[in-house]
Amino acid sequence: PSPFVHEDSRSPLRRALAELLDLAWPVTCAGCERWSTPWCEACARATRLELLRVRPSLAPHLVVHAATPFEGAVRRGVTVFKDEGRSDLAPVLAVLLRAAVAAALAEYVDGERPIPRRWLLTPVPSSPAATRVRGRFPLGEVVRASLHSDRAGAEQRTLVEASLLRASRRTVDQSHLTRAQRSANVAGAFALASAREGHAPEECGVVLVDDV
Description:
The protein is α/β, with parallel strands linked by helices. 35% of the residues lie in helices and 13% in strands. The chain has 7 helices and 7 strands. The strands form 3 sheets. It has a 3-stranded parallel β-sheet, covered by helices on one side.
């Protein structure tokens, strides 16, 4: 079964209240705009885990793990989640994030040091302007949702959110930029923030998380 299709475990009373709320404030599927659910069964079954491993041409020393191609319903879902306030999609996107993180940790090898048991999931920060416009930090919501429901490998590792980066200068929206323009746009745009107590990066593994 698809990991994006879940049985409704709510009590009859909770289901009835949810149906009443749907009448007052109708919800549409973020993937196909069908009524009554944030992510309909058809989009859930069409969403596939297709783990991708790439080395970016602009940063060949990095290994990037993605959980699915950025296309179709997933592309529409990520867009409305970020720009239309659809926080109800965080659990759906958290499934994808957990798969990508698991793939990254499964292949981690460092012959000089022991494999860390504590890993810091560090979301790439949005620009202050984007955060003001949205009134929220969408990527942080997905990271927290993924940690809230993560059970696999709990005995072998500890995953925590840690904001180790901060925006150090203004950037522009990248959606319509060329690859060269994107590279210039983000060059030097982030700096290390003060590590939280108990989350010193040198004592932990770090997974940098971005949405696309």
